[in-house]
Design a protein that fits this description.
The chain is α/β, with parallel strands linked by helices. The protein is built from 11 helices and 17 strands. It is globular and about 60 Å long. It binds zinc ion (2 copies). One zinc ion (ZN) binds next to helix 2.
Length: about 325
């Protein structure tokens, strides 16, 4: 089979690779489409080291090619999306349901080979059969959508509340739509206006650049009170938490999903004096079914976020496109 194999930083070669052999409990998946994200990009540059050689790719839509022994949940021919993280299932965190926090978590496309290939082998519990009517394009963002479904749920929005989304990349534009589906009024905040027309089309009631005057004033105008009830941070920049604290009202909630790895300065004075609740959100626990429901119902529209499309042979161009200013989601058709 053909696979894009990363042999070292920026050394990605499309080549013939051994057909994966599913172990008991595993499923061989024929990949139909794969999304490329910032994590793949950081692995490609070497900023996030992995064991080489490695096949990246964790946002996967495919079809069950074969099943090994002990698989009952899916059958050959099923259309599926892959939940690309699985935990040990035995530690205290797993047993209490916090499997996203398991210290022995395995990430497909990072710790083990992923789906920038014609075939990939994954545990059966990672395969979610998809609604018959849903198209591959709509399904390709199921994984990032599951991340966002959890992040929004961690912020517990109530119908009629005001929310701000910091960042207008793929996660931000998904968070906007999930918040809308939960009945919140949404302000989208970004460094640039580039995505504002799309954000408005997808349901943003207002948009704001971080350069447009004090964010706190804009949040007061939007909310017609002391700030927004909830902020979902998706930007992953060092200043994003400060922006979130500027936007949120006293007693409000901030969900942090996109933080950079380096230490970030946070004005905790503002957290304490105003009793702001800050919560982190890490991938997903049980959010795939809800993500699939939101796609199937049309409450979340993902095809407008797919800006680029390449065949597997042109994966190098896909990485270049990802870094470009007009990329939201770069897709590989495999
Ligand atoms: Zn990703
Ligand atoms: Zn565990």
């Amino acid at each position: 089979m053909k696979a894009a194999v990363l042999h070292g930083p920026r050394d990605l070669r499309v080549e013939a690779a051994a057909r994966p052999r599913p172990e008991p409990g595993e499923v061989l998946v024929r990949v139909v489409a794969a999304g490329l994200c910032g994590t793949d990009y950081r692995i490609w540059t070497g900023e996030r080291p992995v064991g080489y050689p490695r096949v990246m790719g964790h946002e996967l839509v495919g079809r069950v090619e074969a099943t090994a022994s002990g698989v009952a949940s899916v059958t050959t021919g099923d259309r599926i999306v892959v939940e690309p993280n699985y935990s040990c299932g035995r530690c205290p965190l797993c047993r209490e349901g916090n499997r996203n926090l398991c210290l022995s978590r395995t990430a497909v496309g990072i710790d083990v080979d992923g789906g920038f290939a014609e075939l990939v082998s994954v545990p059966a519990r990672c395969c979610w059969p998809v609604p018959a009517a849903a198209e591959a394009d709509a399904l390709m963002l199921t994984e990032p959508l599951a991340v966002v479904v959890r992040a929004v749920a961690r912020g517990a929005p109530k119908r009629g509340e005001t929310a701000a989304v910091v960042g207008a990349g793929s996660l931000g534009l998904l968070a906007l739509q999930v918040l809308r589906a939960r009945g919140a009024r949404v302000l989208v905040v970004s460094r640039s206006r580039r995505r504002f027309a799309l954000a408005t089309e997808l349901g943003a009631e207002a948009t704001l650049t971080t350069a447009e005057g004090p964010l706190a004033d804009a949040a007061r105008r939007f909310s017609t009170r002391e700030g927004v009830d909830l902020v979902v941070e998706t930007a992953g920049t060092a200043e994003a938490v400060t922006h979130a604290l500027d936007l949120v009202r006293p007693g409000g909630r901030v969900v942090v999903t996109g933080l950079p790895h380096e230490p970030t300065s946070v004005p905790f004075f503002s957290v304490v004096r105003r009793e702001v609740t800050i919560v982190g959100s890490m991938i997903y626990q049980d959010e795939f079914p809800e993500a699939l429901r939101l796609i199937a119902s049309g409450a979340v529209r993902t095809p407008p976020l797919i800006t680029h499309r390449f065949g597997l042979d042109r994966i190098g161009e896909a990485f270049t496109a990802h870094a470009g200013p007009d990329a939201i989601k770069v897709a590989l058709a495999i």
